[in-house]
Amino acid sequence: MKIKNFVTLLVIVLVAGCSYMMKVGVNAMTPTLQKVNDTVLRENDYELVGQGLPGQLLLIDGFLSITPDNRDLLVIAASGYCGYSLGYVEDTDPKRASALYIKGKNYGLQALKQDSAFRKALEKGKSFEDAAKLIDSDTYVPALYWTAMCWGSWINLNMSDPMGMIEVPKFKALIDQLYKLNDKYAYGGAHLLLATYYAQLPALFGGGLDKSDKEFKKAFEISQGKFLIQYVYYAEFYATLVKNKALFESELKKVIDAPTDILPDQTFTNLIAKHKAEYLLKNEEKLFSY
Length: 290
Known about the structure:
Elements lengths: L2 H39 L4 H21 L4 H19 L4 H19 L3 H8 L4 H5 L8 H17 L4 H21 L2 H16 L8 H15 L5 H11 L5 H13 L9 H16 L1 H4 L3
Helix pairs in contact: 1-3, 2-3, 3-4, 3-7, 3-13, 4-7, 7-8, 7-9, 8-9, 9-10, 9-11, 10-11, 11-12, 11-13, 12-13
């Protein structure tokens, strides 16, 4: 073998080896990253988390460029982009928030495609809705939830865009599977997502405020009233539609007055809820002017 060819082969082997070792390293770190994520959710300093999240998300992006099929890491990324956008971007920059939600949604879909039946159905040209029905393992519950959260949040910001309505059936297909596999995940996440879905659609198209109210109440029951973002959504997506200012105000004040540590493992999410509640109250007249 010529020296030049030998050197080329050696470089290829070394690069492949380094790539393999990097993947092994990232995969080994994933449980630690999950623990970091859990620690963030227990944090009670809203500004501190806001300053740290962008760097953490960029780090996860980098890790996923090395191991793009790491399902747990993909779910962490989807949840991170959703939480950051909801808590720090959506109210001031909806366009940027939409882009962040799409990024989170895409990470979530990447995680769901680890389910071979779902992936192969899409590759064969089946509709997204039919393919989603094939996700039947509860190991995919977190991916279903966070993909739906990102997707639904994007739809809520883009209801005037025709593409927003086109995406709704796909969003609903994920909720249906989440509901089927574990409706209690994320303190009744499937019920919260269904509640916002029903609130957005008229009864003629399968939605309706009665259905929405029922699903919100079920979510409250599962969370025992401790997952405060549910009350924020109830005020924003239900009370505004029924034009009930008293309900709108009471639900948001309930959030603001609740103890910060009412649900210790979701302290940060509840802080987001408190900030959202304050923002919505400041914009009450605008929300009820339509």
